Amino acid sequence: MKIAVDAAAICQVKEERFGNYTFTRSLIEALGAYDKDNEYLLYSFCKKPFYLNLEKNMRYRRLMPKKFWLTFRVSLEEAIRRNDVFLALNQAIPRFTHAKVLSFCHGLSYFLYKDLYPDSYENLRAQLFRMIDRSKRVLVSSRKVKGELASIFYDPKNVEILPYGVPYDFTNFKSEPFAQPGIKSKRFFLYVGLDHPIKNIQFLKDAFTIFLKHEKFQDYKLVLAANFERQIKKEKNIVYVRSVTRRQLKKLYQSATGYLTASLYESFNFPVLEALSQDCPVIGLESAIIPEMGKFVYLSKNVDEFAEEMRRIATSRKSKIESGEVRELFSWRTYVEKLTTW
Fold first, then answer.
1. Are residues 246 and 104 in the same domain?
2. Which of 228, 215, 206, 227 is nearest to 300 (CA)?
3. pLDDT per residue as tens digits for the range 162-221
4. Strand 2-6 and strand 39-44: pairing?
5. Element at 316 (helix H, strand E)
6. Which CATH number covers residue 26?
7. What's the total number of domains in the chain?
8. Is residue 167 a part of any domain in this protein?
9. Which of 27, 41, 153, 305 has the highest local Cβ count within 10 Å?
10. Is the peptide bond before 65 cis (omega within 30 degrees of 0)?
11. Range of 130's domain?
């Protein structure tokens, strides 16, 4: 089969390389590794990144201009070419294509918390309805998202659950030496991701403040690695990291006492999977953890429970992690095998 792919998320600037970027790059590399039978045409609007290695059955095609890229430029390309399948990786579908469309819904945070997305809610909502209406299959990352779509669209029959795999560069555990000025290994908690209201970062700060009230934890740090754009004020024992390489991130996961997540909504949460793959315990609010990851994570309902779990992990080093089971359960090989049967 000839399969076209919306690979535009690979063009995200370095500071925004989370969610869609991680998914897109991981899936492209997984398709190259595990599917040698089909031909892939990757549409994008930037030059091919130097780090993206493509297999012989994959071609990277830069389409310009960027303006009206999907609705006009990709649609024009799809009108000229007759592909069998179009993979709409970024929740949007071209205006025209001959191909069978498989769409990927990355969650409904904008739909359930519309006040937090004042500039994009209307556009994202319109994309969602088009996706359900025009797709042969809509692929979601968890039972949670499928249930939410069922409540909106009265149980659409074209929605399938397909959890993502461990990100491309975290599939193997290799111990990395840790050296971070002012931070001691196993004496800090970590958050990684976007600096967006939906991520509820203030909750993490509040829990950490409660945690610090115990004298034996006074030297612990909270490391926040995110795309901070606002002015950052100095706060006790809180370290802000604006930019981190993937290798540095792996070191942080391996050396952290635990990973913290308190999002008001998550459809998957890649950093949780990254942390678990590196034997880093995870504490999460129930709203931040999908059901498929619940057995590996310490769940909390409020800030006091959250702080108490931090104390327990810092004291006992207890862990629910079975990193081998995590890598087997969340496998890109399995993902590609199922994807290519539709």
1. no
2. 206
3. 999 998 788 776 776 776 777 888 999 999 998 899 999 999 999 999 999 988 999 999
4. parallel
5. helix 303-316
6. 3.40.50.2000
7. 2
8. no
9. 27
10. yes
11. 2-162
Give the pLDDT of residue 332: 94
The verdict on 133 and 242 lying in the same domain is no
pTM score, two decimals? Answer: 0.91
For the stretch 243-252, contacts whose Cβ atoms lie closer than 8 Å and that sit 24 or more positions apart, written own/partner, are 243/14, 243/15, 244/192, 246/169, 247/176, 249/192, 249/225, 249/274, 250/169, 250/170, 250/176, 250/278, 251/176, 251/177, 251/178, 251/180, 252/178, 252/180, 252/190, 252/192, 252/223, 252/225
What does the pLDDT read at residue 182? 77
**Token output for 259:** 């990973």
Is residue 16 predicted with pLDDT exceeding 70?
no
Half-sphere exposure of 256 (CA within 13 A, CB side): 29
Tokens 């599939």, residue located: 171
Q: At what angle do helices 332-339 and 19-34 cross, to 10 degrees?
A: 70
Whole-angstrom distance, CA of residue 52 vs CA of residue 118: 34
pLDDT > 90? residue 316:
no
Question: Which amino acid is located at 121 in the chain?
Answer: Y
